[in-house]
């Protein structure tokens, strides 16, 4: 028994699936216990499971589904625009004339959100366009950075292989970089989805007029309704995980050769 | 028994090739000429091996021969078969990207193409009709034992299948010349046999087919090649070894009556010993 317990604390130790399940069960138990304990008393730091359930029911009655679809719509719109823009910039970055532009845009990811929002507010009129614009600008900078890393990691061997098959430089770009790394684009999207998702809620809570999950969080926050806040956090987390799983499944389904 | 053969036109002419990166000279003054070998009653291509210790510039020379890299000085000429023969023979042309097939030791393939798609892609510039190309590819797949895996991607192939696909792809695309950088490196005995068979298939299918390869296995080079070049560091005037790769020895196995023997006997072993000595001295 002691030997089995010790195995859990030895680096790189292989454990059986039953042991793994036991470890997961243990952590879930600790989490639930902590939740119940922290919800005890009159001045508790965490809402009880019943309060969270009640919060979820209230949110549902107040149009949670509509807000979810509003957020998903915003995310889809912003992802589509920023992905198209980023791909164009990155696919053209092997051209020496355009490489500095791609690198500059990548560096711009350190720009603060607030400053950009101010300038965008001058340019766009309605809240929805503003949300899409803010998200597009920021997501593009992250996409460009990740896609440039994918490009940089392409082995010279693959480029030489295409060249030895009489591929022109444009054919090398098409075959090795664009067609040959399509699955990586989905993975980059998946990797950046967490940032996008986090930003989406923030952007929605700054510009409340267009609705969405961010608005619900802001409203719950205003009235210190902890049950609703936690229920919303859980909904957002589960939706994010669902999108992550969906993209992973899509990549593996579309590209049989994509084994990473 | 002597192996009767005749040498005709030049098939590869390397003249004073040097490659310098910044202040570092990698290879210098590399010159050699290989001629077409003709044997009575046998279709015979050329198999040229390059041997040498690590860092002697074999891979750099191969990149220059394949046109993937321009030499800092010197030139590489191959016959231009698109032009008619004139009074001086077949006109020559400087080697360009794609004229010479190149297979690296990792047997790189397009990760997003199946074996069939890769071979069809290799034939994309051919003037044959689509049906002719398909028939040609299917025939090669059958001959090279790749028919069953034609719809598989590189990550689904075994090491041997991957090698054959990479070689075949270059064979279909480049015509007569193929350079293989350490094709036997890290292979098990079965896959070594498979590559040897591939060599035989290539050289026996056309007299102009020319394989240039490098290896660290001296015995294997002696067994397969009909011409072996040893690359090493050239001696400097004060008898030190200058850290620049060049050709330090040539063993013409045809002239030594060691080529196409089908066996590895004591004379081959003697030759391997001489090559090893040349390698160690440079």
Report on this model:
The complex is a heterodimer of chains A (260) and B (282). Chain A has 260 residues and is an all-alpha fold. Chain A has 2 domains: 42 residues; 204 residues, MetI-like fold. In chain A, 76% of the residues lie in helices and 0% in strands. Chain A is built from 12 helices and no strands. The radius of gyration of chain A is 23 Å and the shape is flat. In chain B, the strands form 2 sheets. A 6-stranded mixed β-sheet of chain B has the order 6-7-8-3-9-10, sandwiched between helices. Chain B has a 4-stranded antiparallel β-sheet with strand order 2-1-4-5, with helices on one face. Chain B starts with 5 loop residues before the first strand and ends with a helix. Chain B is globular. Chain B contains 7 helices and 10 strands. By secondary structure, chain B is α/β, with parallel strands linked by helices.
Care to give the gist of this entry?
Chain A has helices spanning 2-7, 17-38, 49-61, 64-91, 99-107, 113-123, 127-152, 156-164, 169-178, 182-206, 213-222, 226-254. The mean pLDDT of chain A is 89. Helices cover 76% and strands 0% of the residues of chain A.
Give the CATH superfamily of chain B: P-loop containing nucleotide triphosphate hydrolases
CATH fold-level label of chain B: Rossmann fold
Structural class of chain A, by secondary structure, is mainly alpha
CATH class category of the largest domain in chain A: Mainly Alpha
* Assigned CATH architecture of the largest domain in chain A: Orthogonal Bundle
């Amino acid at each position: 028994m002691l030997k089995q317990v010790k195995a859990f604390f030895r680096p790189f130790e292989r454990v059986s699936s039953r042991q793994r399940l036991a470890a997961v069960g243990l952590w879930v138990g600790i989490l639930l216990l902590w939740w119940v304990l922290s919800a005890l008393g009159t001045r508790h730091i965490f809402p009880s499971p019943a309060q969270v359930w009640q919060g979820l029911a209230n949110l549902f009655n107040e149009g949670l589904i509509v807000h979810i679809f509003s957020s998903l719509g915003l995310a889809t719109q912003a992802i589509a625009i920023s992905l198209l823009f980023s791909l164009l910039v990155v696919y053209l970055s092997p051209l020496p004339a355009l490489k500095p532009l791609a690198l500059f845009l990548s560096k711009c990811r350190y720009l603060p959100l607030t400053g950009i929002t101010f300038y965008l507010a001058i340019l766009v009129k309605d809240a929805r366009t503003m949300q899409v614009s803010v998200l597009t600008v920021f997501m593009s900078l992250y996409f460009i950075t990740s896609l440039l890393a994918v490009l940089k990691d392409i082995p010279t061997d693959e480029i030489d292989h295409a060249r030895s098959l009489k591929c022109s430089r444009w054919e090398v770009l098409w075959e090795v970089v664009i067609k040959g790394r399509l699955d990586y684009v989905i993975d980059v999207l998946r990797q950046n989805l967490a940032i996008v998702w986090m930003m989406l809620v923030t952007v929605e809570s700054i510009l409340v007029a267009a609705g969405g999950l961010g608005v619900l969080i802001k409203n719950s926050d205003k009235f210190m309704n902890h049950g609703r806040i936690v229920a919303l956090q859980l909904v957002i987390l589960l939706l994010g995980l669902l999108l992550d799983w969906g993209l992973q499944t899509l990549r593996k389904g579309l590209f049989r050769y994509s084994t990473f | 028994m002597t192996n009767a053969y005749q040498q005709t036109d030049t098939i590869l002419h390397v003249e004073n090739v040097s490659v310098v990166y910044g202040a570092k000279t990698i290879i210098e003054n590399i010159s050699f000429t290989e001629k077409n070998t003709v044997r009575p009653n046998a279709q015979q291509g050329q198999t040229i091996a390059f041997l040498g210790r690590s860092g002697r510039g074999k891979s750099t020379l191969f990149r220059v021969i394949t046109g993937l890299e321009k030499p800092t000085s010197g030139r590489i000429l191959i016959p231009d078969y698109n032009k008619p023969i004139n009074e001086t023979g077949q006109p020559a042309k400087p080697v360009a990207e794609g004229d010479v097939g190149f297979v690296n030791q990792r047997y790189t393939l397009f990760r997003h193409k199946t074996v069939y798609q890769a071979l069809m892609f290799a034939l994309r510039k051919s003037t044959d009709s689509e049906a002719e190309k398909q028939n040609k590819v299917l025939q090669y797949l059958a001959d090279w034992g790749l028919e069953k895996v034609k719809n598989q991607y590189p990550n689904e192939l075994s090491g041997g299948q991957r090698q054959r696909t990479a070689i075949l792809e270059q064979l279909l695309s480049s015509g007569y010349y193929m350079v293989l950088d350490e094709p036997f490196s890290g292979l098990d005995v079965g896959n070594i046999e498979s590559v040897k068979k591939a060599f035989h298939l290539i050289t026996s299918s056309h007299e102009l087919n020319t394989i240039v390869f490098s290896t660290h296995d001296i015995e294997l080079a002696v067994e397969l090649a009909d011409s072996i070049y040893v690359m090493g560091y050239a001696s400097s005037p004060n008898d030190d070894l200058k850290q620049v790769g060049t050709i330090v020895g040539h063993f013409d196995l045809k002239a030594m009556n060691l080529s196409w023997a089908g066996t590895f006997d004591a004379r081959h072993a003697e030759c391997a010993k001489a090559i090893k000595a040349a390698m160690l001295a440079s």
